[in-house]
Amino acid sequence: AQIQYSIPEELTRGAFVGNIAKDLGTDVAKLAAANLQVLSDSDSQYFSVNVNTGIIMVSERIDREQLCGQNPRCFLHLKLAIENPVEFYRIEVEILDINDNPPMFPSDEVSLRIYELASLGARFPIQPAQDPDVGTNTLQTYHLSADENFNLNVKARTDGGKFPELVLERALDRELRAFHHLVLTAEDGGSPPQSSKIRITIQVLDANDNHPVFDRPSYGARLVENSPLGTLVVKLNATDVDEGPNGEIRYSLSSHNSAALHQIFAIDEKTGEIRVQGNLDFEEATVYEIEVEAKDMGSPTMEEHCSVVVEITDVNDNAPEVILTSFSSFLSEDAPPGTVVAVIHVRDKDSGEQGKVQCHVSPDLPFQLRKDYEHQYSLLTSTRLDREHIAYYNVTISALDLGSPPLSRHTILPIALADVNDNAPQFEQVSYEVLVAENNPVGSMLVTVSAADPDSEQNSRLSYSILRAGGTDPGLDPARYLSIHHTSGQVSAKLPFDYEQTTYLQFHVEVSDGGSPALKNRTLVHVFIVDQNDNAPRVHFPRPGEDSTTQLRISSSTTPPALITKVVAIDADSGRNAWLSYHLVEATDPELFSVALRSGEIRITRALQETDASAHELLVVVRDSGKPPLSTAITLVVLVEEKAPEALQGSEARATDGGSLPTITLYLIVSLVLISTVSLVTLAALCVRCL
Fold this sequence. Notes:
It is a single-pass type I membrane protein. GO terms for molecular function: calcium ion binding. The structure is a single chain. The protein is mostly beta strands. The chain folds into six domains: about 5-95, Cadherins (Immunoglobulin-like), CATH 2.60.40; about 110-205, Cadherins (Immunoglobulin-like, Sandwich), CATH 2.60.40; about 215-315, Immunoglobulin-like, CATH 2.60.40; about 325-420, Cadherins (Immunoglobulin-like, Sandwich), CATH 2.60.40; about 425-530, Cadherins (Immunoglobulin-like, Sandwich), CATH 2.60.40.60; about 540-640, Cadherins (Immunoglobulin-like, Sandwich), CATH 2.60.40.60. Helix content is about 10%, strand content about 45%. The protein is built from six helices and 49 strands. The strands form 15 sheets. The chain has a four-stranded mixed sheet, with no helix packed on it. Strands 8-14-13-10 form a four-stranded mixed sheet, with no helix packed on it.
């Protein structure tokens, strides 16, 4: 939308310009809530808006002549921006001229020297007065004091300027009047009008009575801007009917021309050729009007004036300009599509099609340009953003004009995405399996669980904790046995494990990030306790006494291979550590008795003789298969007696006991084999899984 206001220049600060709330047809409270902002195209902030009243006011002194020079119309452009939703309104304020400058001559007095033989109708230009005002307030007319010889002619220039000239109406006679004193008054059209005066002193000279004459009153030429130095503009031709020095002509640029024009054009004083000696810029001036003097070499010199109008043709020599009206280099990664990132103003100093500009961004980026109105674009997000995929963008705004060949300018906008906590931590493994030897030292490290979070800074700071796994024995609280470092994920043992009490433990490790709200994840850790040979075998039968000694009685008629007794021992360890062997270490007669290596059965190996001792002492050692092996010993005292009812009963009892011993041994061996097999298979499976 566009709103127009008109105000005169030189208003005081705080002067009323317009009521934007009323003109937009909206409530003042809504404007204040929408974060109303005033954006100016100029470097100075001439206006401000009271968001509580919606009134636009003057905030700085406005000098129309300083802003727009001699342009007939002067505008200041504003943009009003509001948020939620983002909307822009263009305001055009026309600055009206007031008559605050009088027309001024370059000097208070000017002197002219005119020959008495000057032709009637000869014209003598006077430096014009300058009035920076425009319209009716600028210079309108000149008044000349009464004189019988001179009259005033005002020459209108193509740019609207007025050029005063003295016209000789009656022949001069130096002998009658050598000096003429005139007063020229310049007056503007303001209300009330302002004016200034210049005194003109004319000295009438004798002699050279013919002035140079141009073959035409004015000349015209057309050049393209940026023409090379030395380019011929036009060649002037003036003649003087006088002879000798009075007929020799020298050309020069009039002092009435501006200093800038003298830097752009030069004239050859002899040939009258005007050439380019400076830079021609269409954007600075489209037309140049050159005042040229032709003087003869008489004494006194006579001169003639003409004007040369040079039109400048525009070429596409200015690349577009990209101006950031509003820009934020940081953007949240969760910004929805359509979020405004930057407001861009483009302009091109060239004219016509060459001054029209088109903008675009690369289609490979998640951004797009929206044309708000002529010369203004908004940079928007076009899709969802993901900082973890791309964290930084360099968005190139390409501005291209419609000239031939076209000119372009590229502006890079660096945009960094701010992180939001949109990624939960992820463990490197779904589950962890740990083998721990029993009797481990307190504080020993068991395993390190590791998780990663692709977010950044606080959102990626991880914290670990141990939780009880579902289905776990309530008596096996993992927090009792284990601890975890909350930042490194290192799991350590708080107590030594005992395989004979606990063979397996599982628990959850939970990781949470530092975002708000925090995101979490879990992994399952399996801890397998590996048995160590930390238990020596224990003899259960025959039950030893306090000194690990027991007595047995056998008949002297016992024949081989009679079973005397069986040593039964049990090891609390498992696997190979519980695989027992029985050894006869010492005996009164080593050749009389034998011990089975695996079953522990003690048998007589030959018939008893009368020469044999009546009491035999056997030292039996039970040893496991651990590394290093552990063992225990029992001493058996075998008493040899004649058959007697007591001895026979004892023998029968032993036979009864001996009959049951092989079955017990068989059960123990089968159990040991099964346990060893299961343990080996489990260990092999764990090794394969770990690999």
